[in-house]
Amino acid sequence: MFNCLIWMFVLLCSCIADENSIRDADIFPSSPEIERGSTLKLFCVLGKRYTPHRNASHIIWKLNHELVPWENYDIVNETVSSITIHNFTYSKAHVKCFTKYLGKEQLLVHTEVKTGFPPETPGNISCIYYFDAKLTCTWTSGRETHLMTNYTLYRKMMTEGGVTLPNTVRSCQNKTESCSFVYPDTPFSSSFCFQVKAENVLGEASSDCVPIPMEKIEKFEPPEILSVKKITGIKQLLTVTWKMPEKIIPSQDLICQVQYRNLYSNSSEIVTVPQNSAEKTGSCNLTGLWDSTEYSVAIQCRSLESIFWSEWSKEKTASTEEEAPSEKVDLWRVIESSHSAGSRSVYLMWKPLNSFPPSGRILGYKIQYFPENHPGLQMTNNSTDEKIILLLNEEAYNISITAYNSAGNSPEAILRIPSTGEKTSQIIETVRTFTTNEEVVVEWIASEPEVTEYVVEWYEELETDPFSRSWQYVSNSTNWKTNKKNFKPFICYNISVYPVYGYKVAAPYSVQTYVQEKKPSEGPVADTGIPGKNEVTIKWKEISKDKRNGFISNYTIFYKPEDGKELNETVNSDVLQYRLKSLQANTQYTVYIMASNEAGGTSGEPKTFKTLKFNKEDIIFIALPVGVSMLFLLGLWITCILKKHAFKKVCWPDIPNPAESIAVEWPLDTSMNNSFLKGVTPEAKTIDCEDISVLEHCFPEESQEGSLLMNCENHVSECTDINTKGMINGDKQILYNEENEVAKCFSPSMPYIITDQDIRSQMHSALIPAKEIHAVEMLEDDLCESQQTSIKNEEDDNEEVLKLEDFSEKALFNPYLKNSVKTREFLISENLPEHSKNEPKSQSAVLPPFQQNVAGQSYITLDMFGLATAH
C-alpha cells in the first residue's frame, strides 16, 4: 500500500513537471534524512526539454563522484529512473543524477543525503533558581543524533499525589541542551516538576517529570565586601565587613565563607561564618595573620537549604600591623674608574628584605657614608629607590644603608669602598661554570678557607648600565646554582665571584659563559687584498659579539679554483688572517670563511680573486736584464755622443792615401818596387832627427824575417845605451848626440825597428810629439847640417836594400805587422808644401794589440823614415 502511494506521487510529480515545464529535471525526495544503516531510495524525473530524444534509460547515478552499479537502477517509466541503496552508512553523501547521450554526460540535478539516529530520552535534569529573576535548567541528551534535534522543557505544577494541575504547564524550546524561564514567568513554588522532550525527523523521546523544590536550587548574587581593616595596636588581625544581596528567598537561614590569602603565597584559607537573612550586613575577624603582611579577602554565601553557593565577591586587600624591619638589606656596589678630577662614581644597589614574612612596608632607605680616615665627615642621603650613585674621591669609604618603615629601622648593611691605589689580594684561584637541564652552576676554589662568604655577580657582556647587574650572596659554600631561566640563551654573560670578609670585598675572579649556544648569526667577510702568483693573504674581522651566539672555536677558510676541487684550512679563533700557499698562477679562486662554535658554523659571503701571472721575483728577473741593458745602451749612447770623435778614430780611423802623399810618388806599375826611394829628392833625403813619420813598411821576404829581427834588436840595444841625462839637464851637445844616435837607430837600412818597452818614454819625444821635435829642429838646425854626409851614405845602402825587395811578387806580411799601416802618426815639417800641412797632423800613435809583439814591444815600419826625409 505504501509503495503504491509512492508510485502515485512520482507519477503526479512527473505530470506536473511535463505540463508546466518548470524544471528540466528533479529528484525526490529532496535533501533526505534517513536513519544510518537503512535503505536509501531516490527518484530522478526528466523534464520536457529532454524528451523525446532522451528517456529514463539515459539516466545514470553517481554517489560522491562514484558511479552507482547498474543493479541498483530501476526504470519506472520513460521519464523516471530510481536507485535503491541498502545499508546506507554514510553520515553525509552527495547523490547526482546525470543524462548520458551520444557519449556525453550532463548533470541534471543533485541532492545531499544525511543519516543519523532518533533521539534518546533526556536525563540528568538540573535547574538553578535566581529569585525573582530567572530559572534555568540543563540536561543530557544521550548519544549524538547527527541530525537537527529540537528540545522542549516543560515546567508543571504537581499535586501531592503526582497529578498535574491544569493550566500550570509552561514550556520553552531550544536546539541546545539548556533552556530558561525569565521573570515574570518565575514564580516561587516547592511543587514544580520538570520534563524534557527531544525530537527529530526520525522520532522523539520524552523524560519523566522530575520534581525539584525551588528552595534547593536557589542561587543568589555574591555579597559585596565593604571593608578590610586592621585595628591599631592589635597585630596579626584584620576585620572584614560585607553586604548581602537584596534578591534572596525570605525567611531562609544563610551561611557565608570568607577566603583570605597573603600576597606572598598562592594558597588560601577559608573561614565559615553563619549569616542571618534578616540582617543585610555581616562581619568577621581574621586572626593569626602575619605581621605587616598584605592580605586579599573574598566572600561567598548560600541558604542552608540550597545546594548552590553564590559566586565569590570581588577581592579587597589590606595589610596587618607593621613592626620594624628585622633583616638588613642585601647591598652591592659597582665602582667606576677615577675621573680626571680625582673623583669616581660608586653605584650602590640593594634588594628588598629577605625576611619572610616581611616586617612591614618599607617607606624608604637611609644611606650614610664617610671617609675611612675621617669619620667625622659623615654624609647622609635618603632614597625611596633601591639604587643610588655616590660621587666619591680617591679615599677609602665606609657606606651603610638602613631600611625603615612606620615601626622603625632595619639593621645596617655595611660595605667598604677601597681607595683608588689599594690592591686587594687574589683569594679565588679558579672559577668554572657549566649548565644542566634546569640550572646554571658556578664553582670556584679559594686559597683561604677561612673566607666563608662570597658574592656571585653576573650580567650580559654588552650591558653598559651598572644597575642592570645581578648578584647574590653565598655563605659557607664554594658553588652556586640558579635557575636557567635567569639567563638568556645565546647571550654571553660575565660572571664574577668576589670573596667577602666582614664588610670588605677582595679581588674578584671573572669568567665568561653561554647558557645555550647556537651557530653564529653571520659569517666573517673575507678580504683577499692583493694576491700574488702562488699565494694570497686572507684577512677577516671578528664577528660582532651580539651575533656570535657562542664562543668561536675556530675559523675555516674554504677556497676553490675555477673548475677545481674545493680545499679548506682551519685556524684557531685568535687568528684573523691566513696565507694560502701553493695556489695556481693566473687562476680565479672563490674563497669564503666559516666561523664555528659548539653549536655549528656559519659562512660569510664568498669573494673571488685571481692570482697573478708573474710575481715580483719574476718581474725583477725579467726587468733587471732589460733595465741593465737599457742603462748600458743609454750609457753607451751618451758616451758615443760625448766621445764621438775618439770612437770615430778608433773604429773608423782616417787612413791617408799614399798616392796623394807629396813624400813619394807612387807609380801604378810593378816597377814601383825598384823606384820607391828614387822619387825622393835629395832635399827630402835630409832627415831631421825629430821629423819621423810612419808610412807603409817594406815587406821583407819571409826568409829574411829572422835576420831582420835580429838586426833590429841589435840596433835597439844600441839605442837603449844612449845617455839621456843630457836631455834632463838641458845640454845641447848631449841632445845633439842623442839625435844623432836616434837617426842611426831609425836608419832607412832597417826594414823595421823593435823598440824596447823600457825606452818608450825616451822615444816618445822623437816619435810622437811633433811640436817638440820642431822645437829641437829650430835649436839644432846647424847641428843637423853635419849629419847630411852620413845620411847620404846611408841612402846608398837603402837603395841596395830596396832593390832586393820585390813588392809585386815576394812581399809577405809579417804576422806582427800586417795591420800596422792602419795606425800611424805623421809629423809634418815646416819645409813641406802648404797642402801637405793641411793633412791631419796627428793620428793615434798607439798601436793596436795586433801590432805589438808578445813582449809588449812596438814596431815601426821602414817607410816611416823615408817619409820623414820629405822635408
From TrEMBL:
Gene Ontology BP term (one): acute inflammatory response to antigenic stimulus
Entry's localization field: Cell membrane
Keyword Membrane (UniProt): yes
GO cellular component: external side of plasma membrane
One function term, GO molecular function aspect: cytokine binding
Pfam family, one: IL6Ra-bind
Domain of life according to the entry: Eukaryota
Segment forming the signal sequence: 1-17
Keywords: Cell membrane, Disulfide bond, Glycoprotein, Immunoglobulin domain, Membrane, Phosphoprotein, Receptor, Repeat, Signal, Transmembrane, Transmembrane helix
Keyword Signal: yes
Boundaries of every Fibronectin type-III domain copy: 222-323, 327-423, 520-614
Major localization class: membrane
Residue ranges of the TM segments: 619-642
Bilayer topology: Single-pass type I membrane protein
Record-linked SMART domains: FN3 (SM00060)
Family the entry assigns: Belongs to the type I cytokine receptor family. Type 2 subfamily.
PANTHER family: INTERLEUKIN-27 RECEPTOR SUBUNIT ALPHA
Name of the featured protein: Interleukin-6 receptor subunit beta
